[in-house]
Amino acid sequence: MDISFRIRRYNPEAGRPKPYWQEFALNDVEPTQRVLELLHRVKWEQDGTLAFRRSCSSGICGSDAMRINGRNALACKLLARDVGPKIQVEPILGLRVIKDLIVDMEPFLAHYRQVLPWFVNDGPLPADGRERLQTQEDKDLVTDSTNCILCAACTTSCPSFWANGEYVGPAAIVQAHRFLFDTRDTGDDARLEALGAPDGVWRCRTIFNCTPACPRGIEVTRAIGEVKLAVRKGATAGIIDPATIKQQH
Amino acid sequence: MQTHQFDALIVGAGGAGLMAALYASQGGAKVAVVSKLYPTRSHTGAALGGIGAALGNHEEDRPEWHMYDTVKGGDYLADQDAVRVLGEEAVDAVIELEHMGLPFDRTSEGRISQRRFGGHTSNFGEKAVRRACHSADRTGHMILQTLYQQCLRNQVRFFDEFQVVDLLLNQGVACGAVAIQLGSGEFHCFNAKATLFATGGWGRVWQVTSNAHSLTGDGAAIFLRRGLPLEDMEFYQFHPTGLYGLGVLLTEGIRGEGGVLLNRHGERFMERYAPTIKDLASRDVVSRSMYLELRDGKGIRGSDYLHLDIRPETVNRYLAEAGETRRIDEDFIARNLAETLEVCRVYAGVDPLQEPMPVQPTAHYAMGGIPTNVNAEVIVDAAGKVMQGLYAAGEVACVSCHGANRLGTNSLVDLVVFGRRGGKRIANFVREAPLIPPPMDAGEEVRAEFERIRNSAGSSRPGALRAQMQSLMMTHVGVFRTAEGMRQGRDAVLELRQRFLQDLGIDDRGQVFNTDLMEAWELGCLLDSAVVTAECALAREESRGAHSREDFRERDDANWMVHSLISSQASGLVTEQLELALNHDRPVDRSLEAEDERFAPKERVY
Q1: Given Cys at both, which of A201, B12, B272, B488 links B198, Cβ 3.0 to 4.6 Å?
Q2: B38 and A57: CB-CB below 8 Å?
Q3: Cβ contact A248–B334 (<8 Å)
Q4: Topology given in CATH for the domain delimited by A3-102
């Protein structure tokens, strides 16, 4: 198939102060080619100055979140046949564009760090020198939220985040969820306090953009809802009913 | 050039780098991690099936059985002092990961759940054993996240999107590295008492690969250009189950859970090649068997791929045949192999619950690399002389615990075990060691090379050169090799290298995120890695592990129980002639064999 590609360009060094659209035509595209491969074809065959991030090309590293035909997605996880012959690609919204499809990820990562996204349990280790015990049911309370790859697709699809970049955003809340509901973790107090702050979880207006934006299929809005309940209660116990956890796929 | 001073500089933020950073910082060192990607983008995150450790949570298991499997899997080229460390410390390292919060799946007793994996057996090869500790089929993702999080907690300093392009040596001692800040194009000098390279492999040398675009052999090439040796570069692993056409990895855990490989006749052909553990033979054996099937015209629909079948009815039939009581169902697959289902559905339009997956071998893992001892200290000659202040761990390193072929799960074991050892060693070293200043001309040569590339206006585009190299290496230096083919391949890659030096042309002359420039520089690293791989492969006149010669079909223990060490004698950083010198003077460490004759080389049967 032939593809007409419309790419949002911006180069701070090129003497063109504003972003603009540029069109590229690609012939003989296989329907199973990834949008990322098409971007590479443009870069390698037509215009080497096109800049974007990428690494694994199979949906696990989280480098290449972009806005494709108006929706956030990973360029390596969307195939030509899923998008059609007209493809429009632009940077994810809400973060400063540095060059072409590359945005400044620092504010996003600062929000991530803000929720203290690390395991805390300074209590005594098991006397036998082995692992802490946990049931599979307890582990599954966080299985969904451990899927997060920090690609920012959810946070940059969120109108509340667009309106106020101080809001920690869905990704940071999902990451907090992963620790809050981990039955082995004891760091809840500090985390709940961070999330209860004015720019924490309450800036979420349950708009639901984040859930379909997630390339990992995480139930982001649900996770945010559970974190809201935990913040209100000041504790996490009893909030998630294991029976309602979705079966993966 | 801005200069930063640290006790320890860690180059690369995958599992090995983060593990080293964590332990060095916990030991009191002031640590910087410099990484060309955001740490969570590192390719450790793509490791799927599990991390091997003889926890024995389902059935009896022992570290020495893990050691035996590793030695045998490595076709008796692994250094047994390193294998001993790997086996002994794997258990403790995995427990430690759990204590750091890694969300492992659990057994019904609440312990870490384990699955079978290729080449892992109990009682010295008797039967397959459940040794791979897993978090669904995204174990590497969870290791990477957990280590990054703990590094953040420990206030390790990260320099994200800084790409290291040169190593600093002064007075015969390592004293840091030069990096480009990708966002600004500025060069930075990192001056450190200890420098550890954990930059990963060079899987992008080949056309069909499971490796990320970022795996371009930067670390190996930098060492080569600084006159340091690389070890066992001829040993490169092809993983049996890459998704057909794309190379995207489908975990060995699929076969660990009972999945089988089938040819066009629906025959489980591994029964013929490895009668005892069949589809769970080590990767080199399975990949070769697949090639032989394809060569015999037994590919699916006469094409160049085979089937991998995890459908419950298939798996349960073979389980019943084997007299096992275990059965699987769709829920089990959805829970334990979620990533696999997703990858197949998205990229191949195949639902593994309904139909078999199309697979072909895919370039996957470098057994060779920067030679180190068991403390992750870089060694510079066949006698094992250490270079002060210089360390390496993970895939870029060659300790060598994998020998001629790595077992599945052992890459993750390698990076936590030897990353940790490196970090601890560094913490001790920097307490006493002085900070050696960088050389007066630090960074000058590499900056000149970058200016050459930035202003290049020839007719050879990097993308085209890279594609040709990848195709040549796939054809001539892949799973099966001959002297004639490898000579052809090497000479053609050398020609591409000449074009890279004389006729390169890129478009972007800018400073900010000049990915055109960086990709071209990385291509140079790939070309050097490819040449060195071909050169070492050509010299080794035997078949061992992943190195399979059609003109020398047998393993030759009398002459080849030795490691290859290759280095460049050229006097500039990037020169027309590589002036390679190759020796085979470093013998394999056989300390396990000295204690227990079961570790002695014998014919490798699975």
Answers
A1: B12
A2: no
A3: yes
A4: Ubiquitin-like (UB roll) (3.10.20)
